[in-house]
Structure formats: structure tokens, C-alpha cells
Amino acid sequence: MDEDLSETLQNIKTIAGVENVILIQKDGLPVASAGVWFSKEEVFAVASSTCAIFGVARLIHSDFKYLLMESETSKIFLASLPNDPDYFLAVTTAPRVNLAALFIEMKDNLSRVSFLLRQRTDRHLPPLRSYTADETQRVLSGFSVAERGNPSYTTTRAVISLDRSQALTLRTILRQVHDSVSDVESVFLALNGGVRVSLDGFTNDRLAAMSFALYDASERVVKTLRNSSLENVLCETGRVRHFIYSVPNGVFSLWVDRNSQKLGLIRLLLKHYIEETRRVLASAPITRPTIPEDLKELLLSDSSEGLIVARRGA
User: What pLDDT score was predicted for residue 74?
Assistant: First the structure.
């Protein structure tokens, strides 16, 4: 089976622009690979990084098929296997790979990989790893390297403030996107902190927070693997296409029926609106949130006595 898997992955590698292909278990363990890697460490780095993206995508879209992360220097493509949620493929490519050829070639090869895994999975592949609560805690504690002294906590995300004119302008842009793209299910801006700006006004909801989290996790992977800035994410399911673009202090998110318009046309239409959105948000003032010292002490206390609620004197 190892030879058959390697041959199938090599078929994907022969697509012009494809650099590396890795078959990965959902827990981040690489099973097989084909490409131009120089060491096993690089394979494990890609596997462990992309499994986090795969998990977030599956959490948002239960019928997730593939996810494409694009930057100036490369593209990273994650593909779910048909009827097999325990494995996925990670493909890294050159920045100008032919996406149409990649999608067409991937379709048959994904089915082939899934078939090979169903044939002999129990006897030839390592079991998926699992951890008890205590084991998980020991793993997490291993990341604490400070032996003495008080830890320092900082905030890395800014809070953006929009005036009435800017908010109305953003809603106008969202309305134009809604009217120019067919079969839009949802279009909104998810600003830092998960605040949603949509045609329905300002709301806080799970969809905005998860869209922001998916982009944020993808951005960290691209920076780790390619030392590059992520430009956009495309996630496709059996029913919808989910576009996420970077904007100042947030992300632009569009959900559209996957059969409504051609992918290339939608991306072309979005280019102008994304630029306008970035212009408006770039002019908005931002602030860095701070946590009062007494509240920080309460939240970060090691005391096992529980929380004590107190009222300040007048």
C-alpha cells in the first residue's frame, strides 16, 4: 500500500507548480509524502501546522471539501478525503499554479487515496493519537519555560472605532457585493474581537468569530511555513464557497452558493470591493485595550479559594 500511496501522491506532484504533497492524519501525524523536502522535520512542521486549520474548517463547515490559503509567495491547499474525516491532504504550490488543473487532477486522486486507506488502514497505518485530560495538561505545561518571576501578559489585537459615516460606507460596500454576486448567503466584516458589521447592523455572533479564527489560524501557518503574509482564504463545501479576505483590523467574509457563478468571476468582482473596504478601515482610529491591574490580578490568580466579588468604595 505504501507504494500505491506514494505513486498517487506523486501523480499530484507532477501538476505544474505543485511543490509538495503530504497525507496527514487529523491529529497532525504525516502518513506519506511526495515533493522536494530536505528533512523529515519539515514534513512534520507542515503536518502539525495544517491540522489546526483542518480542525477549524471542519468545525465551521461540517461538509468541508477543501481550503486554499494564498500569499504572495505560495499557495497552501488542504483537501478533505471523500467519506474519510480522519485524513486530509496538504499541498504546497508556487504562487502562480494553475488552480483549475489542480482541482481537476485532485478529484480522482483524492478518491484513489481514500480507497487505499479503506483497504488496509487497520493493519498498516498507526492509530490516531488520543490523550486523557491529565496527559493533555502535562503537554500544555511543557510550554511553560519560565522558572521564576511573574509572567507578562499583553494584548496583540487592536480595537477599531467607526464613526457613522464610515459605518454607512461599509454597509454600502456590503450591499454592492450582495447585489453584484449571485446567490449570496451572507456577507459581513468580522472585526477584531469577533464584532460583525453586516447589512443587519452591528452584531456579535459565532459566525463572525469563527470566520476570524479561521483566517487568523491560516495566517499563522503561512507566516510559519513561508514567512509571508496571507492574502485570502477560500473554503469550499458541498454547498457553499466561503471567501475570507484580510482587511485592516479584521476580515471580510462572503458565503455564496457554490453553483451560482464561476470562481474566477467572483474573485474578479471582489477585488474592487476589498480595496474600497481596506481604504475605509485604514482611516478608522484604533486603540489598544488594557486590563485594569486589580482585574488582571483576580483573573490570573493562582488561588484555589475561588472568586471573591467585591465592590469599590465610593
Answer: 84
For 35, other C-beta atoms within 10 Å of its C-beta total 18
Spatial separation of the C-alpha atoms in residues 192 and 284, rounded to whole Å? 13
Q: Where are the alpha helices (DSSP H) in the chain?
A: 2-13, 40-60, 99-124, 133-141, 164-180, 206-226, 263-282, 293-299
**Which residues fall within 8 angstroms of residue 12, CB to CB, at 6 or more apart?**
18, 21, 34, 89, 91, 105, 106, 109
Give the model's confidence band at 235: pLDDT under 50 very low, under 70 low, under 90 confident, else very high: very high
CA-nearest of 95, 106, 74 to 9 is 106
Neighbours of 115 (CB within 10 A): 14
The pLDDT of residue 300 is 55
The domain of 12 spans 2-123
The length of the chain, given as a count of residues: 314
Q: Provide the domain count of the chain.
A: 2
pTM of the prediction?
0.75
Based on the fold, state whether residues 200 and 270 are members of the same structural domain.
yes
Residue 253 lies in a domain: yes
**Whether residue 164 sits in one domain with residue 265:** yes
Q: What value does the mean pLDDT of the chain take? A: 78
Q: Which three cell numbers stand for residue 89?
A: 491532504
Tell me the CATH number at 41. 3.30.450.30
How far is Cα 48 from Cα 26, in angstroms, rounded to an integer? 9
Annotate 63-113 with DSSP letters as a single string: TEEEEEEEESS-EEEEEEETTEEEEEEEEEE-TT--HHHHHHHHHHHHHHH
